[in-house]
């Protein structure tokens, strides 16, 4: 029964990987550059499991299974996928081809190596995957830190967490795969198979069926964040505190008068352009004088506006979703979280308090 289950899982993994990998390479989906890396990951999985399934049927042994190991591709492709999701530039630079040299070397030389050396390559593969996954987590951390200084639209925790989950499952699969080679235990091979199955399903569900659309950051966005951090720590700033205080007063007056915070796509570059100042100066003014990052500053206005609307929501025939969109929020979960953090109540509880 277990053997039949394993064969079924093999078939499902191979079929899903090939089918959705090819679909993502269609011109309709290829416009989103990150989908190319996602497609390559799925196709590598499909090829690897097809070859492993074939090797198992012909009973060619451990050496051929190790030769067919394509694990050195997963780390670079997954890292490039994460980076392409979060950055508007640096999607694939000319030196990124160097990430794939280990795969080329192994495919050329592995056939002639003995089992001991193959085991060394397995450890090297694990190290490679761990390294690239750590780089991916660092990329997510930098993005999370920068986005609140740049955009008023907060990325929900669940949207970034699924990327981290993808990286963690990759690490799990790599570790279990090495253990299965060392100990040659059947249940470890089963655990690897279930891990890969979970990995593919996560990609299909969250990466293909329900994709997250991130506000991609550019090099200039990260430069704004870096200059703001330096100014907050009093290490360096090209603007005097007097100039920053004057700008803070201008910002308050402009935002209150124009209600620009209702623009759901508002970012720091747009507001800076309207005020005719550099985004770096605006960011430093908000953080150093008003003690708020850009996201906190804009969303504080949105929350205050939503409080007033919720007080009269019933008489104006407004539901909570209407209020959320009216003040500039696009995510119900983000709206609820920020509203409760500021008032101690959910929007529903707050509305009921006054109605």
Protein architecture, described:
The chain is mainly α. The protein folds into three domains: 2-209; 218-258 and 267-291, no CATH class; 292-355, Homeodomain-like (Arc Repressor Mutant, subunit A, Orthogonal Bundle), CATH 1.10.10. Helices cover 74% and strands 0% of the residues. Helix 1 (2-24) packs antiparallel against helix 3 (34-58), helix 5 (74-86) packs parallel to helix 7 and helix 7 crosses helix 10 (219-232). The termini are far apart. The relative contact order is 0.08.
Summarize the structure.
The protein has 355 residues and is mainly alpha-helical. It has helices at 2-24, 27-30, 34-58, 62-67, 74-86, 101-109, 115-150, 157-183, 186-209, 219-232, 241-258, 268-275, 279-288, 294-311, 320-327, 332-343, 347-354.
Map the helices and strands:
Layout: H1 2-24, H2 27-30, H3 34-58, H4 62-67, H5 74-86, H6 101-109, H7 115-150, H8 157-183, H9 186-209, H10 219-232, H11 241-258, H12 268-275, H13 279-288, H14 294-311, H15 320-327, H16 332-343, H17 347-354
Helix pairs in contact: 1-3, 1-9, 3-5, 3-9, 5-7, 7-8, 7-10, 8-9, 10-13, 11-13, 14-15
């Amino acid at each position: 029964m277990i053997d039949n289950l394993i064969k079924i899982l093999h078939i499902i993994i191979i079929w899903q990987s090939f089918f959705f990998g090819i679909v993502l390479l269609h011109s309709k989906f290829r416009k989103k550059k990150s989908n190319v890396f996602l497609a390559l990951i799925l196709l590598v999985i499909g090829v690897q499991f097809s070859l492993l399934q074939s090797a198992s049927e012909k009973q060619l042994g451990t050496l051929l299974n190790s030769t067919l190991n394509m694990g050195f591709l997963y780390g670079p492709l997954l890292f490039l996928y994460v980076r392409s999701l979060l950055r508007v530039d640096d999607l694939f630079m000319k030196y990124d081809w160097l990430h794939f040299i280990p795969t080329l070397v192994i495919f050329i030389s592995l056939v002639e190596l003995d089992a001991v050396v193959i085991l060394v390559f397995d450890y090297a593969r694990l190290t490679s995957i761990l390294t690239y996954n750590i780089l991916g987590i660092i990329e997510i951390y930098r993005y999370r830190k920068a986005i609140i200084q740049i955009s008023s639209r907060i990325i929900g925790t669940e949207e970034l967490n699924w990327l981290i989950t993808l990286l963690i499952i990759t690490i799990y699969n790599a570790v279990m795969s090495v253990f299965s080679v060392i100990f040659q235990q059947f249940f470890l091979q089963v655990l690897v198979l279930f891990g890969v199955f979970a990995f593919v399903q996560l990609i299909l569900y969250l990466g293909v069926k329900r994709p997250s659309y991130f506000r991609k950051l550019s090099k200039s966005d990260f430069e704004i964040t870096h200059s703001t951090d330096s100014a907050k720590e009093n290490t360096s700033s090209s603007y005097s505190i007097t100039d920053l205080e004057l700008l803070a007063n201008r910002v308050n007056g402009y935002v209150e008068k124009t209600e620009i915070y209702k623009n759901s796509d508002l970012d720091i570059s747009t507001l800076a352009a309207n005020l005719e100042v550099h985004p770096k100066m605006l960011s430093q003014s908000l953080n150093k004088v008003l003690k708020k990052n850009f996201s906190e500053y804009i969303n504080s206005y949105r929350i205050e506006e939503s409080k007033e609307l919720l007080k009269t929501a019933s008489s104006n025939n407004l539901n909570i979703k209407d209020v959320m969109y009216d003040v500039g929020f696009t995510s119900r979960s983000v709206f609820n979280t920020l509203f409760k953090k500021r008032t101690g109540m959910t929007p529903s509880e707050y509305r009921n308090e006054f109605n």
